[in-house]
Known about the structure:
Elements lengths: L4 H8 L1 H5 L4 H12 L4 H11 L7 H9 L43 H5 L12 E3 L3 E9 L5 H6 L9 E14 L8 E12 L10 E20 L2 E14 L9 E13 L2 E10 L12 H5 L2 E9 L2 E10 L4 E13 L2 E11 L9 E11 L2
Helix pairs in contact: 3-4, 4-5
Amino acid sequence: MKPTPLLCALILSPAAFAQSTPPAELEQRLERCALLGDPTARLGCYDALANRPQPTDPDMAAAAAAGVPGADKGRDTHSGAFPGGPVGGLVQTDGSKAPAAAEPEVSRMIPLWELDAASKRGVFNFRPHRDNYLLLVNYSNSTNDTPFEDFTPAGIKSKHVELSYQLSFKMKMLEGIGQTPFDLWFGYTQQSFWQAYNRSASSPFRETNYQPEVMATAPIGKNIGGLNLRYLTFGGVHQSNGQTSTLSRSWNRLYAEVGAEYGKLAIAARVWKRLDNAKSDNDNIDITDFMGNGDLKLSYRSDGHEYSMLARRNFGKKHGAVQLGWAFPLRDNLKGYTQFFSGYGQSLIDYNYSQMSLGAGFLIDF
């Protein structure tokens, strides 16, 4: 195997990594380098972390473009260090310690939606869409057994504690629609609520929701007062629980979504219009009364932790819901995860049923 520049840097410059940077901080810096789409910028970021000499101005510019503090100030010819470099206070020529520079900001939306040329991966490649998690324990303060009693006289007696999970991915189907900057995506999300600990009822799946969608997404690339507008999406989504008779729940929507970032804060705002409002053959005609006409998602990342909020509201009917999440690092892409939900519509079968729940488990962070 041919040695890569990063491998050589790690072999030849171990002291530069070990002496000044704690392992946890080093791992975060390496992660930020890995997220850079441009190969030259990514290599410059790794070289600066390894404290390698930068022989030419373009190389130093690449490290600066990668978000490495102080890389554009030049290399000190006596100490072999970048003044104010990325390892948080390298020794300067006068023996003093340079002040630690601000952490570079890394966009999560650009690679997830392939919004620039450097992040393009072509078509038919899987990417994460919504959160992928497993709640080993999800406790609800109230159970909604009425729909099952209507379906069968025996019904089910749900336990307050169940297991729930969500799987979600997307895939680009077409890069560039006509002469427009829009890419065409297909997404799929599945959310299940499993009475895994209800042995007396044979541990049934209480509810599973299936949500395929098609999305046309284009980059915006505008900065307004520090708020980076990243993308605009127009989509169509179907959501149902795959049931029949009185247990059936489904709806179809068209929506528009705008994504933006402000430092480490990510914002996604969406509004939708329901399509199937006819009263005939409709088992949840009033679903928008409880699920609203849009949602807002906020996500803040810091030191490997992620704090998130998803909120919905129908202001006319005064119904809605809020979901709070906290993901914290465990190992590699695996994170611990806790989730709190309060309001209507945790699942489709519960769209008109209010409850509070608290769960704990794991989240996969791609």
